[in-house]
Amino acid sequence: MTVLYQILQYGYLVLYVYYLIIVLKIILSWTPLVKTGFYAFLHKITAPYTDLFHGWLVIGHIDLTPLLGIILYQLILAFIGAAL
């Protein structure tokens, strides 16, 4: 394996872990744990990506844009994974 291939694999792994953190943050946002320091930490980590989509798809009081962000992120991961 070349060094470049190993770097790409590592980058893919980092992006996948970030995806899992985003999903965890969204799931926790529906629970009372939203008031904990752990949730605040997850929000701080994921805010740079999730805030890009904030408010694009709102139905009533429900903001569905995290779903849009997750779908786009999955597409990016699929594209990178297929390239590896």
List the helices and strands and how they pair.
Elements: H1 3-28, H2 37-50, E1 58-59, E2 62-63, H3 65-83
Antiparallel strand pairs: 1-2
Calculate Rg over CA atoms. Answer: 15 Å
Shape: globular
The helix/strand class is mainly alpha
The helix tally amounts to 3
In angstroms, what separates the terminal alpha carbons?
Answer: 12 Å
Beta content? under 5%
Total number of distinct structural domains: 1
What integer is the average pLDDT? 87
Low-pLDDT runs: none
Q: Biggest sheet, in brief?
A: 2 strands, antiparallel
Q: Summarize the amount of helix as a percent range.
A: over 70%
* Structure summary, number of beta strands: 2
Instruction: Write out the strand line-up for the largest beta sheet, numbering strands in chain order.
Output: 1-2
The string of secondary-structure elements, in order, is HHEEH
Description:
- This protein is mostly helical and 84 residues long.
- The chain has one domain (7-83).
- The chain contains three helices and two strands.
- The protein has helices at residues 3-28, 37-50, 65-83; strands at 58-59, 62-63.
- The protein has a two-stranded antiparallel ribbon.
- Strand 1 and strand 2 (62-63) form a beta hairpin.
- Helix 1 (3-28) packs across helix 2.
- The radius of gyration is 15 Å and the shape is globular.
